[in-house]
């Protein structure tokens, strides 16, 4: 093995199933270092995922229902067979089995989990490796709501992962649209330095962010309002510069109120997709970007769905998933009448529905996001678990 070229050694080791990777890492320092390289990670994960999809026709995603996070696959083989869900395991790598999660965000195989009953800390989690890292909040106020995001800065040697947190005033903006929502400061946390930093905006952003942000290529995007109280563009947070910017026009402009639902999602960490649902009609429209990194983003219509008798469907906090190859859209929904969390699947071959179960907490809205396994390490920082702070 010592005489093999590096690229051939990587090729051979990438074929080993993940269940045997621990033994590979413990064999020698060279293989342990190889395990952490981005090229090997991309090759190994890509092969494992391609094999899984080819054999089963499944789409993997993270689903949160009743404050529990689970890894689930939805199998859509062909138009003649009804789709089905296959649980891949409840993500209970946490120390306390009774921990309840209120929000979950995905980036590069890492999950940022915000707790329901503990606002003093949150946890970052790699379910593929079974590693967790608890992070203490810099400060908190029980009356305030916060928005969160996780992303990374690409560096020559590695990716530097970071967390964003800022106060969420969107509910106030909806009820009092003439009172401007000023985002003037926000906090970021750096995994490597184990530091919180506070950032002040010289020119506060006068806008409202809609629901959840989605991570794409290390940055996070939100749908946001213009000065007229309409949802008309996206705003990006760049984790490299730790700043807001990158405003891109949406293919529509709708009022920011309870009559319209707008949501973002990402497609294989390559494209953005956006969904708009009018609560007054039975139509859902979905678009996909071509290349979000260009100055002018072009949106193409992916699917239009007439819900018909399902016009009471209310998409939960912008949770939907797209399988571009199969032309399938999945949306997660809380059916208040039946008291069930359900997964609605729309495609060119029609509509189907899967029950996810009856939650014990009726106020817990289900959440769904795409998931790609990752070999990113999230071990505790050197010198202990306590987070240092810095202005």
Automatic annotation (TrEMBL):
<dbReference type="InterPro" id="IPR001810">
    <property type="entry name" value="F-box_dom"/>
</dbReference>
<dbReference type="InterPro" id="IPR050796">
    <property type="entry name" value="SCF_F-box_component"/>
</dbReference>
<feature type="domain" description="F-box">
    <location>
        <begin position="1"/>
        <end position="43"/>
    </location>
</feature>
<dbReference type="Pfam" id="PF07734">
    <property type="entry name" value="FBA_1"/>
</dbReference>
<dbReference type="InterPro" id="IPR017451">
    <property type="entry name" value="F-box-assoc_interact_dom"/>
</dbReference>
<protein>
    <recommendedName>
        <fullName>F-box domain-containing protein</fullName>
    </recommendedName>
</protein>
<dbReference type="Pfam" id="PF00646">
    <property type="entry name" value="F-box"/>
</dbReference>
<dbReference type="InterPro" id="IPR006527">
    <property type="entry name" value="F-box-assoc_dom_typ1"/>
</dbReference>
<dbReference type="InterPro" id="IPR036047">
    <property type="entry name" value="F-box-like_dom_sf"/>
</dbReference>
């Amino acid at each position: 093995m010592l005489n093999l070229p590096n690229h051939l050694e990587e090729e051979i080791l990438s074929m080993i199933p993940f269940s045997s990777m621990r033994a590979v890492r413990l064999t020698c320092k060279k293989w342990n270092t190889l395990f952490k390289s981005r090229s090997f990670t991309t090759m190994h994960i890509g092969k494992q995922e391609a094999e899984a999809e080819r054999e089963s026709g499944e789409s993997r995603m993270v689903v949160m229902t009743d404050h529990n996070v689970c890894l689930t696959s939805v199998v859509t083989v062909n138009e003649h067979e009804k789709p089905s869900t296959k649980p891949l395991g409840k993500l209970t790598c946490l120390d306390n089995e009774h921990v309840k999660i209120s929000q979950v965000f995905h980036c590069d195989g890492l999950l940022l989990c915000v707790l329901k009953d503990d606002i003093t800390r949150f946890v970052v989690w790699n379910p593929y490796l079974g590693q967790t890292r608890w992070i203490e909040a810099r400060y908190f106020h029980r009356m305030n709501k916060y928005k969160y995001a996780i992303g990374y800065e690409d560096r020559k040697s590695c990716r530097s992962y970071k967390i964003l947190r800022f106060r969420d005033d969107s509910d106030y903006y909806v009820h009092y649209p003439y009172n401007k929502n000023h985002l003037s400061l926000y906090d970021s946390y750096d995994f490597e330095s184990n530091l919180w930093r506070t950032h002040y905006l010289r020119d506060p952003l006068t806008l409202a962010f809609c629901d959840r942000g989605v991570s794409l290529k290390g940055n996070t995007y939100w749908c946001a309002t213009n000065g007229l109280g309409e949802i008309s563009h996206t705003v990006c947070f760049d984790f490299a510069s730790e700043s807001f910017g990158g405003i891109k026009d949406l293919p529509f402009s709708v009022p920011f109120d309870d009559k319209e639902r707008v949501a973002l999602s990402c497609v294989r960490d390559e494209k953005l997709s956006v969904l708009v649902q009018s609560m007054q009609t039975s139509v859902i429209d979905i678009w996909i970007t071509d290349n979000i990194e260009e100055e002018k983003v072009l949106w193409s219509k992916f699917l239009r769905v007439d819900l018909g008798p399902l016009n009471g469907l209310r998409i939960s906090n912008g949770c939907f998933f797209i399988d571009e190859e199969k032309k399938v859209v999945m949306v997660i929904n809380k059916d208040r009448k039946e008291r069930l969390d359900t997964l609605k699947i729309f495609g060119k071959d029609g509509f189907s529905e899967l029950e996810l179960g009856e939650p014990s907490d009726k106020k817990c809205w289900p959440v769904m996001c795409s998931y790609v396994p990752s070999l990113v390490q999230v071990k505790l920082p050197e010198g202990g678990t306590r987070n240092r702070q810095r202005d």
